[in-house]
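Researcher: I'm preparing a figure for a lab meeting and need a structural model of a single chain. I don't have an experimental structure, so a prediction will have to do for now. The sequence is pasted below. Please return the structure as tokens so I can convert it later.
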Amino acid sequence: MNRRIIRILALLAGLFLASLLRADPGPEIERKGRIALADLVAHDAGFSALLERAAGVLVVPDVVPMVFGVGGEYGEGVLLVDDRAVAYYALFTAPFGIDQASEYRAHVLVFLTRQALIDFRNTQGWEVGVHGDLPLLDNAAGLPGDARGDNPDRMVGLVFTEQGIQPGIDLAGGRFSRIAR
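Model: Understood. Here is the structure written out token by token.
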């Protein structure tokens, strides 16, 4: 088998095993997601305006390391559109080297346009770097030029811990898959 097929099988196996171990109900995922967003806005108030104008936001509030199988990190999140939970997603990523002493890690995707949101929702197993790029923010003022309007079908992301936004993290290969809750 080629490496790509082996990688996909390993990711799917990791998602399946992790989902068996961490199956929070939808309302709990939503509650944790809203707390994570409130923490983000408390850390950098500029995110409030960004979130208000966004077409949608996917927040994965509790990304944890997986110590078995292929390694990596796993989390479950909520997609909020017009401040309503519309879907739930699982995230499986490679380990990023964030200090393991961190109590929590939250991943946030902000859909800057309706088209970006539609494209994401219409893709099974959306993978960073395969189905689209995900420019990462270091702060609310740090929107990349193409996310401000040069390329309107964009989204941006960030990784947030209790220490604040984690700059310089590459999310390439992170896979978001819709889950039932």
